[in-house]
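In response to a reviewer's request, we include the raw inputs and outputs for one of the modeled complexes. The two entities were modeled together in a single run.
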Amino acid sequence: MSRVRVLVGTRKGAFVLTSDGKRQNWDVSGPHFAGWELYHLKGSPADPNRIYASQSSGWFGQIIQRSDDGGKTWNPPGSSPEELKGPEGMPKGESNKFVYEGEVGTHKWYDGTQHPWEFKRIWHLEPSLTDPETVYAGAEDAALFKTTDGGTTWHELSGLRTAKGNLWQPGAGGMAVHTILLDPKNKNRIYVAISAAGVFRTDDSGKTWKPVNRGLKSPYELPDPDAEVGHCVHRIALHPSRPDVLFMQKHWDVMRTDNSGDSWTEVSGNLPTDFGFPIDVHAHEPETIYVVPIKSDSEHFPLDGKLRVYRSRSGGNDWEALTRGLPQKDCYVNVLRDAMSVDSLEPCGLYFGTTGGQVYASADSGDSWNPIVRDLPAVLSVEAQTLPS
Amino acid sequence: MVRVLLPYHLRNLARVTGEVQLNATGPVTLAWLLDEVETRFPVLRGTIRDHITLRRRPFIRFFACEQDLSNEPPQTVLPEPIATGAEPFMIIGAIAGG
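The model returned the following structure tokens for the whole complex.
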């Protein structure tokens, strides 16, 4: 029977949750990197025991950590295990170095002036689908970095910032590459999403990029609601069998595209509110998608104090509330953009974490939910790995 | 022997317990001390100072002999008790709530 490992990043460390395929009983390990912010952890699809983690701190900056044993032990990449054994053993120290390439350049600042790019942290790590040594990293201030040596060194794919980067502007949450989607059918195609800039696509492995935001409308956020860049995209997702179809949770609006982002249409349909952060796709049903509606941009908590996941089995527009096992009164948590994930077991499992420290799991495609843990620090990210037995 | 006290999180990162001891063969300046710490513990590069500009990170403080040297220039010669090891040089995470 297959197993599941759920990697949870929180405001105060990382946790690794594991279970067998029944997903009823869970072991919890952590906190790893206690006291640090773990914006994201993700395992390599090519080697599930290779896990990368983004560890950061307002005091000490950015550290990349790597585990080669499924999250039991961790090291900043750069030294062999032998080199780390002695009392003076330590990594060699380039793995936390993220430097913008060439002329740093400027982007739009809050007051409308131009402001230089300043590296703050890595929000999201996306390991290659085929090579455990290759990983993409989404940064704040918005940029995309890549390693091909297991995280030891990183270099920027700077073409992204030439896609009208001077017009990008931070929102209240900063300006970060928070989503990276690798096309499993076209190794040269990558999508990234940036708040507050929009979605961008490369078809040449990251050399050149173009905005793909046609159809997005932001009348309350932008002076030109149809602007080519500037939209506050919260999250995008795809099903690996149909990588030309993308789903989006925007600041407001749930959207979809059937042509790789060339045009988007709204599929918010009967959602009680179409504001939210995460969106994800069922592992076996490419038209089944999930969102967590949040009351508004001013009130980041569920409508009426009821924590509800909404599921559409038709790729949007028709949505049903999934409530069984979730708190239906006095619940005022948020679910952040990287804090939802699916496993690929049958039935499909879903997981999401809240700013209140709960991680909920469903082993039946969302029909019912149970908390795996209730009292972690605020959850920033959740990633599920389906493992062989 | 120059004694350096790292903040808790950086001790964990560098995998050291207690103070770090450095051997000085020349003038004990702020820049020498930080260079030496980063040479001994490369994983700390970027955590105390910016990788490129070598400017102190905003929420790091340098204390020595009950003085705040955080804003002193890199070539500042550290007080004699630091150079002799009578007092530790303290690298501190700035006060913050939450």
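As requested, we also summarize the result in words. Chain A has one domain: 3-83+104-387. Chain A has a mean pLDDT of 95.
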